[in-house]
Design goal:
heterodimer; A: 184 residues; 8-stranded mixed sheet; two-stranded antiparallel sheet; B: 96 residues; alpha+beta; Dihydrofolate Reductase, subunit A; globular
Chain lengths: 184, 96
C-alpha cells in the first residue's frame, strides 16, 4: 500500500508558547530548513492573514539582491508551488493560488488520499486550530525560538481533547532554535 | 516548618531570592510553585531554565508562562531527549 501523503504543520513558536512573526530568528539556516520542507511537498495551505503576509513579500524577493542566497532560494521554492488560501472575503489572488471559501474537512481528507507529495500547512493560528479540531494534521514541526516573549497570540489557546504525540525528530540550529517534530 | 534544612521566607520571594543568591554557595534549585517561578522570572533572578517538553497537547491546565510579562532573549544551552518522547530544553538569559 502506498503511504498516504502527510499533512504537515510547521510553525515558529517562542519557548514560552507564543506565536509572533517578529520574534522569529529568520536566519539562513531557518530558510534552508523551510526550503527543504517545502520541497517535500507539492501544495501549501494558508489562512488569509498568513497568505497576505507571504504574498506581499515573496513574489518580488528573488530579484532583491539585498537578500541572502538562502532567502532567495526559499523565495523561488515557495513562489513556484501551488497554494490554497481559505478565506470567505479575499477577492482575488495570483501567486499560483486557488481560493477555497470554506475549510471542508472532507475535501482535505480527499486531497490526502490522492497520490502526491506532502501537504504543507503554513498557518496562521486560526486556520491551524481548525485543522487540529478536525484531526487533519499528521505532523507538527515546532521551531522553538529562544525567546521568552511574555505576551502575544497562542496557538494552543482553546479547550480541546488531550492528544498524545510521538516525538520523531529533533534538530538544534546554530541560532538556538530547536526543531521538534511530532507525529500525531 | 519541620522538614530538615528548610527556611521559611515570608513576603516577597524576589527580595529573599536576591539575598540568598548573593551569598556564597552552590546553585539554588527551584523545585516548583508556578507563582514563585513567575515572580523570580519577572525579577531576573532565574539564571537557568530547564523545560521538560512532553509529547502531548493538553486540553486544559495551568500555564507556567502567563500573557503579560516582559520579553527576555534567551540562549539555548542544551536540548536533550531523555526518552519517552520528552526533551529537556535548557536556557539561560542571553544577558547572563
Amino acid at each position: 500500500m502506498v503511504p498516504m501523503r502527510k499533512l504537515i504543520f510547521s510553525f515558529n513558536i517562542t519557548m514560552d508558547g507564543f506565536i509572533d512573526h517578529d520574534a522569529v530568528i529568520a536566519d539562513d539556516e531557518l530558510h534552508d530548513i523551510a526550503s527543504e520542507l517545502l520541497s517535500s511537498g507539492d501544495i501549501i495551505l494558508f489562512g488569509r492573514v498568513a497568505y497576505e503576509l507571504f504574498a506581499g513579500f515573496w513574489p518580488s524577493a528573488p530579484a532583491d539582491k539585498t537578500l541572502s542566497a538562502s532567502v532567495r532560494a526559499f523565495a523561488n521554492v515557495i513562489n513556484d508551488m501551488p497554494k490554497i488560501v481559505y478565506s470567505r472575503t479575499i477577492e482575488s489572488v495570483d501567486w499560483n493560488t486557488k481560493i477555497e471559501r470554506a475549510l471542508d474537512p472532507g475535501r482535505v481528507m480527499d486531497m490526502k488520499t490522492q497520490p502526491g507529495r506532502n501537504i504543507l500547512l503554513a498557518g496562521g493560528a486560526g486556520v491551524a486550530r481548525t485543522f487540529m479540531k478536525y484531526g487533519l494534521i499528521d505532523e507538527y514541526r515546532f521551531l522553538v525560538q529562544p525567546i521568552m516573549l511574555g505576551h502575544g497570540k497562542r496557538l494552543f489557546d482553546d479547550e480541546r481533547a488531550r492528544q498524545d504525540l510521538k516525538l520523531t525528530h529533533t534538530r538544534v540550529l546554530g541560532s538556538g532554535v530547536v526543531e521538534l517534530v511530532y507525529a500525531t | 516548618m519541620k522538614w530538615n534544612n528548610s527556611t521559611l521566607i515570608k513576603g516577597e520571594p524576589c527580595t529573599a531570592g536576591g539575598e540568598t543568591q548573593a551569598t556564597a554557595g552552590r546553585g539554588h534549585l527551584l523545585a516548583g510553585s508556578i507563582q514563585v517561578a513567575r515572580t523570580l522570572l519577572e525579577h531576573d533572578l532565574v539564571d537557568e531554565l530547564r523545560l521538560m517538553v512532553s509529547p502531548l497537547v493538553l486540553a486544559r491546565g495551568k500555564r507556567l508562562f502567563e500573557d503579560g510579562s516582559k520579553t527576555t532573549a534567551m540562549r539555548l544551552v542544551e536540548a536533550k531527549p531523555v526518552g519517552g518522547g520528552i526533551i529537556i530544553l535548557t536556557y539561560r538569559p542571553a544577558e547572563k
